[in-house]
């Protein structure tokens, strides 16, 4: 039954013999007592694992809503017997349809098309079906989702978006009545104490190995930063399900935490789209997200990564580059007194003995099947190279679990090794970003890194790859080009890789060809990219540019998918499916997890593709979970119609992750009927092409890409809007209109989503423009490309539109999103009368210019630029601030001041809000600047333009200001924001005495220069900057300050927090790179190891505000 359909509850939920429900104590409740209430129909069964896990969440929600008195749940059982029903219903505080009334239970399941459980259908007070997605809503939003309507969920989504735009530390960490965090001593610490600080949100789970390993590193960095007096805090966001685990982990941490199982944790996981653990999100002093995850940075650089700013990341990249250039073998392999490697008899070999040799660092382990498969190849290569060159060595770096396994594996190797358990292993893995084994990194005689993908080269070319240098690659490349017979194949391969957006082309990756190898090896190694038969397959991990070759490219499904104790995979109903039954089918290995936002977004797309391909009978998907616990796995797996590796078999799951080098999720590997890897970018293919990408081979994707290219070259309105089964668009009254009727017109493709506020606002403007163009007889039409998930929302929105649309959820909609590389909503793509794209988005042009933007040609946009320029030159204060009868501003007591009284003054338009911490931080500076300017020029005023949420907040904030304001909720605010393209607050626009715009960046100018910048003209700014430059010439390049042990160097920085007075500073500071300690010039020069008087005599400067000026 679709959402919005009306039902008679009494008739729906009763039968001829029954007009009551029952409670778990046997009481009867009349069916008609639910009329006028919001009702949840809960389809569930005691035998169903996901149901058992969802029911307690629903109980909690039900009990929280009991006080409202207008919400009820009715249990519709899927149990097999009455005893199971009674046991299960005893846990439920709500009503149930008696187990004996099988007919009603069956009728309801058919009516609501219940295909799986748990399933919660919400019916509103009027008997309308609000949603059939109640389970997801309760899981995702809990009691906040009440009353579970489309409007409520859209509101919550908009609220989430608004929260991101207006994010503060409080908006992230305060929840309901809880405005505090907890320490591991049990103290409650107000969130407000962290505001203005740099804060790390540490998403972790104490029972998860990588988190256990990472926490000590983070503790060490945190303590060092505290010792240096840095204003940095960490808040633990624990994902532990067990309170004992939480406490055990938290005891080792010197920072704060959200309370165990706090309701905000699930929201934060969704809000930050968590993809991996551990994750450390950095929130800046302004409350904005500075970096979504610095965990890896801290692993690599420790305290040096602080303060995690973009500038710091650039600096680290430079450091890394310098390290690489200065790298030597000893800098890699010597650590303290660990200056040796060992032979298999345990004898020590000094690292100094290896200097000047080409070295391979071989990361491997005995337990790893691909490692054991690769080892004979590496031994042969080693012996072949050593036969002609003794300046070569291999060093084994083990990932074995114990000494005996290490000894056994090492005994079969002819080379050297790091001792088992040596701490250098971890730093080498991190340095070379080793994500899986086997891996081989080649080091040159000078100690520089040659390649981190030497395993692939050895696998393909053996000793011919030696010495792995760029020169050798070029030499072999010349041999390749000497074979004219191969030229076409190479170019084809190169282009195919380019189309796949590989970071390095195939030509660069596969030019290691000797005379004997030339044609045969190029084909065998590379052919999956251009879709020829091969005995070797290539999987490209695009994120780290590593190319992995799997030997013979063929996987015996039994080996990677089974274990010694298991030869089956499972369905979500518990059925077992033998792995042997999958032979001859195409398989998708789906690496995913319930906690991962992108996975949650991709899984429904994959479900749709899977269901469409089910009829073919030759495609299957196997879920390989990255969930933290079995409950999460079961809840997530319940949504999937395919198979899974059991959660309990963590060894197989880990092995598959290593085998396919899974470095991020969602990740989909496609394996052909013969066991060959067809593609490891299945997620990209399915998201982009859907079922049309089947059978997901490189050949098929190339065909589709070629079709796309051809379609763009030969684009017509028909090629864009017509599909195989549809050659029409629809009108809002339901009529079908042939696409051919639009040919020869200028057509706007309007990408919109009704639940998105910006689209709703733009639609009204577009309707106005459309109707005006139609009234003028223009040959213009619009076609809505709806991106709604909900048909009811689409239909309601489409009624207000006078144009056509593609049917909701038409597959062409998704294709067009990819085709036009949609990046924002709303978007209006304009197609010219010839069917070619005239403009990729004219939404902003229509917002600014309305019907004047038509016909959207390049010539028209040039004209609009000229008009805009002329408008700016003719701009007056009244043209900006007067709108109809709104010709005044107000004082804080509410009295009106005519705009005409402000004409001839210099005006600052101050966009701000009380809820915004950066606004509150900036305001004292603006007030001081205001008074300083007024003291010397009374032809000056500031006008506050509020983004507050209510009148009370507006009044409170305005009461602290000495200037004027536009009234709260005044429609001029929106016009001014649009005119000056205000994207964030606080923002200050300077208007000159003539009414012309002087400066749109006055906030930064005031922050740096204060009153000195007045009247904010270009000439004045140049004058001020010259003064500052002149003044800075007298400052020392370096100072030694009594508050800090190291020398401080004069440095440029747009904005910073002074470690002396703890106030914001701008432009220049005295800075210690080693400790990230910085001082305002006024602080640095006030208390150096010279006396203040001595410095004045010597330099002739005094401190004034944020800068020091000539006396």
Report on the structure:
- It contains 41 helices and 50 strands.
- With 1111 residues, the chain is of the alpha/beta class.
- The longest helix is centred in the middle third of the chain and has 20 residues, at 369-388.
Short account of what is shown:
Keywords: NAD, Oxidoreductase, Repeat. The chain is of the alpha/beta class.
Helix content class: 25-40%
What distance separates the N and C termini? 81 Å
Major sheet strand order: 32-31-35-34-33-36-37
Q: Roughly what fraction of the amino acids lie in strands?
A: 15-25%
Q: Residue ranges: pLDDT <50 for 5 or more in a row?
A: 2-6, 479-554, 1089-1111
Decide which structural class fits the backbone: alpha/beta
Q: Overall 3D geometry?
A: globular
- Number of H/I helices: 41
Radius of gyration: 34 Å
**Overall average residue pLDDT:** 82
Strands, total number: 50
Largest sheet: 7 strands, mixed
Pfam families: Thioredoxin_8
Catalytic activity: [protein]-dithiol + NAD(+) = [protein]-disulfide + NADH + H(+); [protein]-dithiol + NADP(+) = [protein]-disulfide + NADPH + H(+)
EC number: 1.8.1.8
Organism: Rhamnella rubrinervis
What layout of secondary structure does this protein have?
Blueprint: H1 9-13, E1 20-22, E2 28-30, E3 38-44, H2 49-65, E4 71-77, H3 82-89, E5 95-96, H4 102-111, E6 119-123, E7 129-131, H5 134-141, H6 150-165, H7 169-173, E8 180-182, E9 188-190, E10 198-204, H8 209-227, E11 232-238, H9 243-250, E12 256-257, H10 264-271, E13 279-283, E14 289-291, H11 295-301, H12 310-326, H13 329-333, E15 340-342, E16 348-350, E17 358-364, H14 369-388, E18 392-398, H15 403-410, E19 416-417, H16 424-431, E20 439-443, E21 449-451, H17 454-461, H18 470-482, H19 487-499, H20 506-509, H21 518-530, E22 537-541, E23 546-550, H22 558-561, E24 568-570, E25 576-578, E26 586-592, H23 597-613, E27 619-625, H24 630-637, E28 643-644, H25 650-659, E29 667-671, E30 677-679, H26 682-689, H27 698-713, H28 717-721, E31 728-731, E32 736-738, E33 746-752, H29 757-775, E34 780-786, H30 791-798, E35 804-805, H31 811-819, E36 827-831, E37 837-839, H32 843-849, H33 858-874, H34 877-881, E38 888-890, E39 896-898, E40 906-912, H35 917-936, E41 940-946, H36 951-958, E42 964-965, H37 972-979, E43 987-991, ...
Parallel strand pairs: 3-4, 4-5, 10-11, 11-12, 17-18, 18-19, 26-27, 27-28, 33-34, 34-35, 40-41, 41-42
Antiparallel strand pairs: 1-2, 3-6, 6-7, 8-9, 10-13, 13-14, 15-16, 17-20, 20-21, 22-23, 24-25, 26-29, 29-30, 31-32, 31-35, 33-36, 36-37, 38-39, 40-43, 43-44, 45-46, 46-47, 47-48, 49-50
Helix pairs in contact: 2-24, 19-21
């Amino acid at each position: 039954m679709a959402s919005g359909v009306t039902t008679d509850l009494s008739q729906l939920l009763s039968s001829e013999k029954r007009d009551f429900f029952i409670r778990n104590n046997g009481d009867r409740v009349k069916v008609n007592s639910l009329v006028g209430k919001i009702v949840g129909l809960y389809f569930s069964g005691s035998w169903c694992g996901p149901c058992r896990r969802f029911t307690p969440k629903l109980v909690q929600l039900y009990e929280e809503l009991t006080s409202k008195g207008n919400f009820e749940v009715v249990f519709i059982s899927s149990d097999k017997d009455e005893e199971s029903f009674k046991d299960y219903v005893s846990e439920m505080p709500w009503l149930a349809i008696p187990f004996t009334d099988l007919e009603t239970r069956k009728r309801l399941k058919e009516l609501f098309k219940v295909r799986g459980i748990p399933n919660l259908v919400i019916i509103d007070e009027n008997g309308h079906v609000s949603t059939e997605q109640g389970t997801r809503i309760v899981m995702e939003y809990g009691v906040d989702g009440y009353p579970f309507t489309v409007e409520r969920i859209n509101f919550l989504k908009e609220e989430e978006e608004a929260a991101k735009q207006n994010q503060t530390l409080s908006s992230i960490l305060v929840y309901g009545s809880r405005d505090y965090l907890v320490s591991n001593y049990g103290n409650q610490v107000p969130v407000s104490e962290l505001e203005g600080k740099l804060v790390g949100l540490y998403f972790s789970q104490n029972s998860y190995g990588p988190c256990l390993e990472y926490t000590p590193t983070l503790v060490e960095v945190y303590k060092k930063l505290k010792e240096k007096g840095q204003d940095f805090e960490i808040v633990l966001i624990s994902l532990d399900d067990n309170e004992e685990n939480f406490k055990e982990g938290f005891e080792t941490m010197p920072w704060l935490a959200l309370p165990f199982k706090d309701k905000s944790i699930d929201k934060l996981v969704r809000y930050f789209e968590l993809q991996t653990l551990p994750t450390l999100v950095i929130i800046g002093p302004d409350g904005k997200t500075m970096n979504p995850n610095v965990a890896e940075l801290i692993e690599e650089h420790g305290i040096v990564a602080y303060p995690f700013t973009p500038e710091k990341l650039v600096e680290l990249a430079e450091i890394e580059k310098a390290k690489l250039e200065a790298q030597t073998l000893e800098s890699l392999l010597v650590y303290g007194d660990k200056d040796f490697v060992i032979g298999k008899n345990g004898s020590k070999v000094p690292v100094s003995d290896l200097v000047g040799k080409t070295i391979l660092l071989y990361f491997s382990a005995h337990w790893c099947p691909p490692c054991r498969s690769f080892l004979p190849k590496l031994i042969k290569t080693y012996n072949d190279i050593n036969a002609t060159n003794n300046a070569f060595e291999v060093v084994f770096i083990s990932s074995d679990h114990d000494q005996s396994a290490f000894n056994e594996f090492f005994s079969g190797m002819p080379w050297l090794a790091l001792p088992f358990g040596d701490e250098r292993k971890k730093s080498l893995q991190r340095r070379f970003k080793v994500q899986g084994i086997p891996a081989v990194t080649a080091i040159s005689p000078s100690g520089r890194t040659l390649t981190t993908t030497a395993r692939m080269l050895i696998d393909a070319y053996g000793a011919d790859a030696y010495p792995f240098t760029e020169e050798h690659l070029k030499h072999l490349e010349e041999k390749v080009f000497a074979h004219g017979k191969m030229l076409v194949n190479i170019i084809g391969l190169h282009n195919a890789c380019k189309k796949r957006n590989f970071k390095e082309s195939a030509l660069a990756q596969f030019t290691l060809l000797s005379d004997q190898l030339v044609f045969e090896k190029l084909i065998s190694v590379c052919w999956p990219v251009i879709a020829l038969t091969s005995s070797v397959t290539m999987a490209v991990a695009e994120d780290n540019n590593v190319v992995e070759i799997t030997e013979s490219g063929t996987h015996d499904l039994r080996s990677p998918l089974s274990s010694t104790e298991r030869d089956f995979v499972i369905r979500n109903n518990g059925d077992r499916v033998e792995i042997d039954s999958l032979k001859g089918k195409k398989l998708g290995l789906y690496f995913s997890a319930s906690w991962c936002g992108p996975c949650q977004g991709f899984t429904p797309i994959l479900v749709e593709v899977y269901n469409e391909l089910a009829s073919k009978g030759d495609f299957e998907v196997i879920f390989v979970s990255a969930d933290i616990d079995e409950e999460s796995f079961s809840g997530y797996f319940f949504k999937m119609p395919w198979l899974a590796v059991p959660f309990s078999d963590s060894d197989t799951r880990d092995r598959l992750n290593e085998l396919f080098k899974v470095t991020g999720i969602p990740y989909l590997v496609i394996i052909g009927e013969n066991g060959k890897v067809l593609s490891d970018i299945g997620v990209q293919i399915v998201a982009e092409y859907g079922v049309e990408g089947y059978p997901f081979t490189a050949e098929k994707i190339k065909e589709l890409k070629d079709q796309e290219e051809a379609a763009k070259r030969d684009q017509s309105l028909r090629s864009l809007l017509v599909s195989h089964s549809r050659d029409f668009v629809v009108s809002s009254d339901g009529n079908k209109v042939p696409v051919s009727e639009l040919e020869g017109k200028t057509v706007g493709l309007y990408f919109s989503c009704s639940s998105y506020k910006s689209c709703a606002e733009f639609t009204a403007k577009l309707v106005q423009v459309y109707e005006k163009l139609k009234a003028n007889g223009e040959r213009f039409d619009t076609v809505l490309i709806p991106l709604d998930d909900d048909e009811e929302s689409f239909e309601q929105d489409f009624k207000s539109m006078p144009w056509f649309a593609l049917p909701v959820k038409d597959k062409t909609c998704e294709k067009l999103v990819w085709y036009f590389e949609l990046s924002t909503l709303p978007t209006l793509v304009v197609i010219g009368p010839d069917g070619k794209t005239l403009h990729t988005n004219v939404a902003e042009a229509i917002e600014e210019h309305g019907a004047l933007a038509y016909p959207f040609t390049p010539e028209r946009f040039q004209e609009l630029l000229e008009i805009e320029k002329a408008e700016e030159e003719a701009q007056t204060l009244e043209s900006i601030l007067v709108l109809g009868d709104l010709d005044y501003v107000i004082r804080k007591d509410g009295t009106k001041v005519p705009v005409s009284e402000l004409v001839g003054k210099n005006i600052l338009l101050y966009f701000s809000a009380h809820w915004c911490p950066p606004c509150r931080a900036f305001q004292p500076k603006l007030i001081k600047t205001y008074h300083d300017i007024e003291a010397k020029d009374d032809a000056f005023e500031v006008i506050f333009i509020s983004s507050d949420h209510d009148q009370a907040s507006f009044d409170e904030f305005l009461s602290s200001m000495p200037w004027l304001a536009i009234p709260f909720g005044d429609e001029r605010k929106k016009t001014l924001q649009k005119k000056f393209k205000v994207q964030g607050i606080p923002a200050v626009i300077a208007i000159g005495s003539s009414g012309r715009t002087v400066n749109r960046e006055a906030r930064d100018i005031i922050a740096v220069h204060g009153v000195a910048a007045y009247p904010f003209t270009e000439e004045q700014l140049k004058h001020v900057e010259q003064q500052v430059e002149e003044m800075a010439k007298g400052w020392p390049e370096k100072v030694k300050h009594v508050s800090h042990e190291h020398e401080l160097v004069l440095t440029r920085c747009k904005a910073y927090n002074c470690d002396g007075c703890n106030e914001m500073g701008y432009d220049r500071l005295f800075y210690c790179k080693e400790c990230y300690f910085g001082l305002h010039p006024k602080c640095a020069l006030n208390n150096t190891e010279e006396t203040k008087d001595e410095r004045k005599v010597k330099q002739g400067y005094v401190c004034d505000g944020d800068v020091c000026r000539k006396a």
